[in-house]
Amino acid sequence: MSAPRQKKRIDIANDGHFFARLNAVRMIVVSFIGLGYASTMAIGPHAREWLNLFGYDPSLFGLQVLFFLSGWLAWRSLSQGRPLLAFIRSRATRTLSWLALYTFIVAAILYPLLSDPVAPTAKTGAQLALYFIETVTLINPGGPMPGALDCAHYASLLQGSVWSLQWGAIAFAGLLGAYLIGLRHRLIYLGLFAVAVCAHVGVNAWSDRTGSDLLSSLIPGLRLAFPFLLGIVAYGWRDRLPRRSAGWLLIALITLGAASLHYYGLRWSYAIEITAMTGWCALAMAGLHSRGRWLKHWPNLALPFFLGVWPTAQTVYAVAPDITVPALVAISLGIALSLAATFYALARIARRPVHRRVQSA
Known about the structure:
Layout: H1 22-40, H2 58-79, H3 84-114, H4 125-136, H5 163-180, H6 186-210, H7 219-236, H8 245-265, H9 271-288, H10 302-319, H11 325-360
Helix pairs in contact: 1-2, 1-10, 1-11, 2-5, 2-7, 2-9, 3-4, 3-10, 5-7, 6-7, 8-9, 10-11
């Protein structure tokens, strides 16, 4: 008599070999996001970002890749039996500590420097404190700050890039809820991925056809929900997916090729975004599975770099409004990266005495 067939679940992983390259892949992705943001800072939101592909900006594809990786890593942690409190604490402290630092710099330093204190819309100290609280708690992250850069192309937005963190928190909360009530079979998440894709296409198509903004607030979240779920699905089917970089490169070539054929040869549809996003995610996985030593053991600068690009570009443009776009991009990315590296080094130095005291106690 044969043994009973066990259900396919998202269980134990033996795939930690490529984590040495995770920081590098994230940094490369964030660099494309930052390049996209900075390239339109002096032009305005109506302009296409540099490296726009198939009508979609690199900042969008970059965010989708980051959410894909987040879904993959989050479900990996949960399925390995990591305590829920430890899971929540590690992600909350790592994200919110950096967000608090950059929000404090924006509210306490940049805003006073860039604002007109006699402007009727200028924020008071109490309002800046409220802005800090609402941003760090992700209640209203990166809201407008009237009184500073009111005439800029991205008026009053000093932290315009942090909106995605709120959707990330919602995605993690939903994932934890699903895990707690026992939704752990990989087919469930494949179904949820399909539902998210259909909802994304349906909401966008309905909004385009009717010209209504009734559901427009859902579009950013849906655009990040399906890559997050795709990451969970990819982890669930990791036993049937490539384990080498070449296999992921082939998937990237097929999906990006399909998106290209669709964009240039067929009638436009939202399938272009879905297939292109899948291709970029596969390319990120190819990087994680790469054997290139140059990708190994990069410092974890992705989050502070991401948080610093937008306010840096806004500040550079405010100081030098006649700056060319290439110069704005280069200077903004350079300063943001330097600040991220400096803060990262200071954080490591600050933690060393704590570790030594714990060890000697």
